[in-house]
Amino acid sequence: MKKQIVALSMTSMLMISCGVKQPKLVYPETAKVDTVDVYFGTEVPDPYRWLENDTTAATAAWVEAENKVTDAYLAQIPFRSALLKRLTDVANYEKIGTPFKKHGKYYFFKNDGLQNQSALYVQDSLDGEPRLFLDPNALSDDGTVALTGIYFSNDGRYMAYTISRSGSDWTEIYVMDVQSGKLMDDHITWAKFTGAEWQGDGFYYSAYDAPVAGKEFSNVNENHKIYYHKMGTPQTEDKLAYQNPKYPKRFYTCSVSEDETMQFLTEDGEDRGNALYVRNLRKPNSTFVPMTTDMSYRTYPIEVMDGKIYLITNYGAPKNRVMMADLNKPDREDWKEVVPEAEFVLSEAEVIGGRLFLTYDKDASKHAYVYTLEGKPMHEIEFPSLGSVNFSGNKDDKECFFSFTSFTTPGATYRYDMEANTYELFRAPKVDFDSDAFVTEQVFYPSKDGTKIPMFLTYKKGLKKDGTNPVYLYGYGGFNISLNPGFSSNRIPFLEKGGIYAQTNLRGGSEYGEEWHLAGTKMQKQNVFDDFIAAAEYLIAENYTNKDKIAIVGGSNGGLLVGACMTQRPDLFRVAIPQVGVMDMLRYHKFTIGWNWASDYGTSEDSKEMFEYLKGYSPLHNLKPGTHYPATMVTTADHDDRVVPAHSFKFAATLQACNDGQNPTIIRIDSKAGHGAGKPMSKVLEEQADIYSFIMYNMGLEF
Questions:
Q1: What percent of the chain lies above the pLDDT cut of 90?
Q2: CA distance 31 to 1
Q3: Where does 153-286 show beta strands of DSSP type E?
């Protein structure tokens, strides 16, 4: 494959101001093939199909050539190193997680500041001396092995833990002796979307058959199975506990109650909900009994107490409610309502100290209430500002902790007094950042069809609405996921330089329940893009900014969002950062677990109407030659087996061929990294330095 690389000089690349065009980059030549797919009689060329094969020498050469252009471009940004230093400085603070109690001891995660991964500590009492229990930083030289879950056996003897390598969704399971800290010989591979659910002298886990060599990160995942592993035996002797070959493209996971009296089986991947089954472990050779099989609704167990199963479900309640079932009469028709559906969305429910702790989304901000187990309201736990909360405690505990965070407040831990309904600060990090100098406001703006959309704006106090402020506009809008307030040190340098961080709550998420979610799915997906475009138009109309000072950013489904909006309205944004995005809407379901997204997207094989709708907004298929696109940096990673890098590869190649302006259109391809979870701190800081310096440089800003 012929490659052409251009050397970038400081002189030729220096952008004097936002109004001065940069010299057009010269990109590697990307070979084209004559692949054409036919959908319902319509021919659709796919000239870069060969880039889907991410293990060939040709693709590797293309990646290397693209990264050379990207690295050279980023290296000549005069303030990148200073920005990286500031990002590093503000990230260098002690991060301590909320404590949780297991078998009489307290555990918590802590990061000293710039450690690649947070380590797990244990202490005998809350004022006891913490001891290092498990350090994932010791599992690799470069921090690319991440601890993804910990699971204590019910007798307290063992702790199983799951890891991910290089950001992959593939999971390995190890077991350590809690008392001695000794690593046992037990080791599970090729597990995925699973924990370790203990029963007796072993645990259940979910896994796939070992993939074909060379296709570990791209082939479709099928036939999810549940196994039982007995301690001290090799994985080859693990017992197959459940499979359903009738539905190879569904997920099957199980959980076991703490008292080991009930086992739950969750089946999902077919629709937007799940089926739930229960098995009475007190009866030998018992089988799973269905609780609900309608996969258009979501139902999950909260807690098991005295043969009663507390559940959170959206069946008959689009904004969710709490129900209770009897183990002896588990069918949905026999469930009893404990806490009915409310005005706002019930997002979390748990039992702590014999009480129900319920967290609601009110206009995308968290609010918490305490109820009796019978469903009687007791009180609200009032928080200091708009923010997000996570509770920590067990059903029999007399103490409770919670963490609270906002856009300007890093996660602080509070100790909650359940009797007095008061709380006191337990731990708070110290960050090199004056949070009092910034403010968050929430606005509501009209989308194209008049729907009111909430958006959080965070900026320096005293900001002037003179139409010149740079904006980092972030959104997601899909899969019933809510974007709530949260702190990120990565935003601090941008905010300190007068930037506005705008986080908008688009349709497709869970902010207002299932109706809000469905309004951004399948044949209504365009609503999500309209909502995002309207956010930019609102910020311009209200004189916060102008079109030359807006950067749009989003990852995964949010990468699709950015790709769709920059192709529909290339005139509206100065910079676009589509991260690990779903860019080929006609073929997304053909890789790894892409088929699981059909409940939100539909597929090109469903019908002619669905195919045409997907093609109408698919970012890859709506790039047009001769168009002036925003300055764009596509990001992906070589071990992303959630949204395979082929999406970004093909989009970047097409964008470079179509862009007729001077704006750079580059792709940043990380190595030994995946979809994002578990990425080591060193890689996070490098990536964020690249993203923010690219944004600020192309807005004509200085640092």
A1: 91
A2: 7
A3: 158-165, 170-177, 183-192, 197-199, 202-207, 225-230, 239-242, 251-256, 262-268, 274-280
pLDDT band at 674 (very low <50, low <70, confident <90, very high): confident
**SS in 3 state form for 512-535?**
CCHHHHHCCCHHHCHHHHHHHHHH
| Helix H or strand E encompassing 292 | strand 289-292
Of 202, 189, 187, nearest to 241 by C-alpha is 202
Give the dihedral sign, CA 101/107/113/117: negative
Is-contact 137 119, C-beta < 8 A? yes
For this structure, is 556 an active site residue?
Answer: yes
User: In which residue are the tokens 């469905």 written?
Assistant: 518
Active-site residue among 556, 604, 618, 648?
A: 556
List the 365-372 sheet strands across, edge first.
345-352, 355-362, 365-372, 377-381
**pLDDT over 70 (residue 257):** yes
Q: Comparing 130-139, 184-193, 216-225, 547-556, which segment has the lowest mean pLDDT? A: 216-225
What is the pLDDT at residue 488? Answer: 97
Tell me which of 257, 367, 675, 693 is the catalytic residue: 675
- pTM over 0.90? The answer is yes
- Asked about 489 being catalytic, the answer comes back as no
Distance CA 325, CA 37 (A): 50
The C-alpha atoms of residue 441 and residue 57 are separated, in whole angstroms, by 51
